[in-house]
């Protein structure tokens, strides 16, 4: 028996990546510097998956499997290696990526900033520097001419996690910080000051995109799917503001909101309840919660007052066991179908991630639909890629489990 969902005929089915995690040698970025200053705390991105050179193969694998969309990013540190100095060759490189995707029948979903900034931007003070909004807008303006034919543009990936990272980067440079928020760790709270600065940068970028392109503009939020335990609704609302609603409010007037979901956590009187050790936890130490996607879609829909089309720009699991990836994704998609049946406007599902990639200081957590040999860069599609492609070809129908 299969379940046929009521998805739009133009529903996007795809996979997501980010430049720093797959391209390799992003030497001019703040993250490259942080990796090298971390005194061994972080593994190095190095050549990553060499997708900078191998993107045609990566895209071809996705298209041949049956997917119709690919989310990838443009790396600011390559486009603007020094303030005001723009590389025409790098802009042409990303234009070729867009054309390759379009040629393969993959809808390009383009991210303009995915956690990494040029070193000089970080040295100038990063997002809270008085020059930040102008710097970011100028970069976006330079990118606009290559966006011809692109319908979906995400300005900034997960500004809420970026706010956390900005707060932690000083500790990281001293070898003290780490972004792994696994079992037993108390989740920090994103900095509202950085968050508000990011909202300003996003609004300015949306205006630039509207002026120079016909793309739909939005940004993506890391939905935590926080659930209040009885009596802790007030604290839950405060945490949700700092974690998400600030960024949902910052999305007002956008064309869509990117929803990114992996897990869910409870909130008690002490805040977000740390994940407990369990054999079920994923390789990032997160609780196995495929139902988080349904919670995330409902919370995002409600927070944007039921008016903003949602695009799932990331959802996936770090696991060495591909059968588990298929089980997780099957269940996550069944929750997506429920949300759509309730009337929530979901435009697509982009799985994280296309490739086993550099997971921000760690290589062990494997999220990919495609394995990558880090010596030879050989790609080996996993069964989950063919499986997701088949779901896409069947318009989202899932085989009933159990
Ligand atoms: C980010 C990705 C990351 C993924 C899994 C999201 O926070 O956008 O870059 O690899 O989650 O941790």
**Portion of residues in helices?**
25-40%
N- and C-termini, Cα separation: 11 Å
Quickly count the helices. Answer: 13
Low-confidence stretches are: none
**Largest beta sheet: strand ordering:** 2-3-4-5-6-8-11-12
Bound molecules: beta-D-glucopyranose
Helix/strand/pairing category: alpha/beta
CATH superfamily: Glycosidases
Number of domains: 1
Average pLDDT? 94
H and E string = EEHHHEHHEHHEHHEEHEEEHEHEEEHE
Query: Largest beta sheet, briefly?
Result: 8 strands, parallel, barrel
Radius of gyration: 20 Å
Q: In the CATH hierarchy, what is the architecture at level 2?
A: Alpha-Beta Barrel
CATH names the topology as: TIM Barrel
Report the strand count: 15
Question: What labels describe this entry?
Answer:
single chain; 8-stranded parallel β-barrel; binds beta-D-glucopyranose; TIM Barrel; 3-stranded mixed sheet; 402 residues; alpha/beta
How do the helices and strands line up, and which of them pair or pack?
Layout: E1 2-3, E2 12-16, H1 19-22, H2 30-37, H3 51-65, E3 69-73, H4 76-79, H5 88-103, E4 107-113, H6 119-123, H7 132-143, E5 152-156, H8 159-173, H9 192-212, E6 216-223, E7 226-228, H10 233-249, E8 256-261, E9 265-268, E10 271-272, H11 292-303, E11 310-315, H12 322-341, E12 346-352, E13 370-372, E14 379-381, H13 383-393, E15 398-399
Parallel strand pairs: 2-3, 2-12, 3-4, 4-5, 5-6, 6-8, 7-9, 8-11, 11-12
Antiparallel strand pairs: 1-15, 9-10, 13-14
Helix pairs in contact: 3-13, 7-9, 8-9, 11-12, 12-13
Bound molecules: beta-D-glucopyranose.
Beta-D-glucopyranose (BGC) binds next to loops.
């Amino acid at each position: 028996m299969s379940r046929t969902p009521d998805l739009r005929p133009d529903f996007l089915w795809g996979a997501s990546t980010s430049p720093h995690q797959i391209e390799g040698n992003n030497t001019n970025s703040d993250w490259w510097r942080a990796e090298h200053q971390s005194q061994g705390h972080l593994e190095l991105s190095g050549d990553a998956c060499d997708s900078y050179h191998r993107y045609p193969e990566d895209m071809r694998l996705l298209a041949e499997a049956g997917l119709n969309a690919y989310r990838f990013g443009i790396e600011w540190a390559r486009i603007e290696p020094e303030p005001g100095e723009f590389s025409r060759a790098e802009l042409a490189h990303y234009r070729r990526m867009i054309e390759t995707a379009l040629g393969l029948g993959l809808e390009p979903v383009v991210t303009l900033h995915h956690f990494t900034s040029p070193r000089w931007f970080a040295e100038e003070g990063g997002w809270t520097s008085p020059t930040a909004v102008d710097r970011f807008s100028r970069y976006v303006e330079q990118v606009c001419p290559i966006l011809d034919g692109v319908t979906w543009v995400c300005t900034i990936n997960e500004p809420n996690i970026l706010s956390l990272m900005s707060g932690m980067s000083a500790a990281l440079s001293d070898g003290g910080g780490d972004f792994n928020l696994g079992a037993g760790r108390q989740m920090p709270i994103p900095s509202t000051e950085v968050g508000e600065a990011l909202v300003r940068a996003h609004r300015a970028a949306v205006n630039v995109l509207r002026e120079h392109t016909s793309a739909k503009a939005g940004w993506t939020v890391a939905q935590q799917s926080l659930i209040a335990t009885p009596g802790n609704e007030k604290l839950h609302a405060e945490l949700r503001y700092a974690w998400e609603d600030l960024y949902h409010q910052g999305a007002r007037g956008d064309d869509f909101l990117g929803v990114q979901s992996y897990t869910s956590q409870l909130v008690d009187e002490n805040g977000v309840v740390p994940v407990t050790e369990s054999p079920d936890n994923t390789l990032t130490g997160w609780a196995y919660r495929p139902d988080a996607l349904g919670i995330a879609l409902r919370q995002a829909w409600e927070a944007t007052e039921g008016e903003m089309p949602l695009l799932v720009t990331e959802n996936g699991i770090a696991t060495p066991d591909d059968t588990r990836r298929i089980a997780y994704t099957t269940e996550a998609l069944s929750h997506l179908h429920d949300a759509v049946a309730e009337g929530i406007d979901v435009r697509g599902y982009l799985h994280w991630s296309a490739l086993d990639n550099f997971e921000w200081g760690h290589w062990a957590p494997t999220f990919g639909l495609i394995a990558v040999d880090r010596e030879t860069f050989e790609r080996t599609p996993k069964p989950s890629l063919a499986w997701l492609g088949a779901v896409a070809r069947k318009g989202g129908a899932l085989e009933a489990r159990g």
